[in-house]
TrEMBL record:
Homodimer. Catalyzes the stereoinversion of LL-2,6-diaminopimelate (L,L-DAP) to meso-diaminopimelate (meso-DAP), a precursor of L-lysine and an essential component of the bacterial peptidoglycan. HAMAP family: DAP_epimerase. Keywords: Amino-acid biosynthesis, Cytoplasm, Isomerase, Lysine biosynthesis. One of its GO terms (biological process) is lysine biosynthetic process via diaminopimelate. This is Diaminopimelate epimerase. Coiled coil: none annotated. One of its GO terms (cellular component) is cytosol. The record marks Y270 as: Important for dimerization. Belongs to the diaminopimelate epimerase family. GO terms for molecular function: diaminopimelate epimerase activity. The active site is at C75, C75 (proton donor), C219 (proton acceptor). Substrate binds at N13, Q46, N66, G76, N77, N159, N192, E210, R211, G220, T221.
Length: 276
C-alpha cells in the first residue's frame, strides 16, 4: 500500500511523519525498522504516527517509534515536528494544540517565527516510576558500569533518562559508555543517556545517546531531563539554553511539581510517498 509521508527534523533529530487519520496505516516493528533504515528505507531516528484522539479533550493522538522498531512514550523534537506537520497537512488550523501521547497530554504552541513551544509536563523523579532500581529518590546516584562508578541523575520525562556531568562534551565517551548505560540492569526499560557540560547558570552543552537509536543530533526530552537534573543540583537557573550538536533549545523549569517548557524549531525537509 502506498502512503504519503513527510520527512522532518528538529535540530537534526529526524522523523518520518505519517498521517494515520486520512490514511489507513498498519505498522509493525519490521516496517518501522525498514522505514528508518538509511540504506533501504527513508532514514530517520524516529517514526511518528498521527492518529485521532481517544480523549475528547485532545486535538490529536500520536505514537512514536524508535529506529529499532520499539514504541516509546515521549519525544520532544517529535512533538515540535508534529505541531508543524498537522498544520502543513491541513489537519488543523489551530496554533495551540492538545495532544494525547503515551506519556500523557502535551500542550503545544506554534509561534510566528516557526518556533514551537511545548509544555512537556512535570518530570518524574521517583525511581520506581522512571523506572530505575534505587532504594530512595536522590538528586544523584552512583552507577557501577563494569567496575567503574559514575554519578548520574535519573529523570523521566515520560521516557527514562540518565544524566552524567562531563567537563567537555567534545571528548565525552558517548559511543563507549552510552550503550552500556542504555542497557544497564538498573534501568529495566533501558534508558536514554545524556552527557551534560555546564557552561554557566544559563547555558549548557549536551550530547545524548538515545535508547533504540544511538547518538542523535538532538534530543528534546534529553534536554528537558538534563535541565531538571542540573537544576536539582543547583547548577543552573530557571531558564537554560542547551546547545546540542544540531542546534539550541531553550528549556524552562522552576522546580519539582512544575512543568518543563521546551522551545525550539521544527523543519520540513520534503514530502514523499512510499509503498508500505
Ligand atoms: N529524540 C527524542 C526521544 C525519542 C525517544 C527516545 N529515544 C526513547 O527511547 O525514549 C526527543 O527529542 O525527545
Amino acid at each position: 500500500m502506498r502512503v504519503k509521508f513527510s520527512k522532518m527534523h528538529g535540530l537534526g533529530n529526524d522523523f518520518v511523519m505519517l498521517d494515520g487519520i486520512t490514511q489507513r496505516i498498519k505498522l509493525s516493528p519490521e516496517k518501522i525498522r525498514c522505514l528508518a533504515d538509511r540504506h533501504i528505507g527513508i532514514g530517520c531516528d524516529q517514526v511518528l504516527l498521527v492518529e485521532s484522539p481517544r480523549n475528547p479533550d485532545a486535538d490529536f493522538r500520536y505514537r512514536i517509534f524508535n529506529a529499532d522498531g520499539g514504541e516509546v512514550e515521549n519525544c520532544g523534537n517529535g512533538a515540535r515536528c508534529f505541531a508543524k506537520f498537522v498544520r502543513e497537512r491541513r489537519l488543523t488550523g489551530k496554533k495551540q494544540l492538545l495532544v494525547e501521547t503515551a506519556a500523557g497530554m502535551l500542550e503545544l504552541s506554534l509561534m510566528d517565527d516557526d518556533q514551537v513551544s511545548v509544555d512537556m509536563g512535570a518530570p518524574i523523579l521517583e525511581p520506581e516510576q522512571i523506572p530505575f532500581a534505587a532504594d530512595r529518590r536522590a538528586e544523584t546516584y552512583p552507577l557501577d558500569v563494569d567496575g567503574e562508578v559514575f554519578t548520574i541523575g535519573a529523570v523521566s520525562m515520560g521516557n527514562p533518562h540518565a544524566v552524567l556531568l562531563v567537563d567537555d562534551v567534545d571528548t565525552a565517551p558517548v559511543a563507549a559508555l552510552g550503550p552500556k548505560i542504555e542497557s544497564h540492569q538498573r534501568f529495566p526499560q533501558r534508558v536514554n543517556v545524556g552527557f551534560l557540560q555546564i557552561e554557566s547558570r544559563d547555558r549548557a552543552r549536551l550530547r545524548v545517546f538515545e535508547r533504540g537509536v544511538g547518538e542523535t543530533r538532538a534530543c528534546g526530552t534529553g534536554a528537558c531531563a538534563a535541565m531538571v537534573s542540573a537544576r536539582l543540583r543547583d547548577l543552573v537557573d530557571d531558564s537554560v539554553e542547551i546547545a546540542l550538536p544540531g542546534g539550541t533549545l531553550t528549556i524552562h523549569w522552576s522546580g519539582p511539581g512544575q512543568p518543563v517548557t521546551m522551545t525550539g524549531p521544527a523543519t520540513t525537509v520534503y514530502h514523499g510517498q512510499i509503498v508500505l
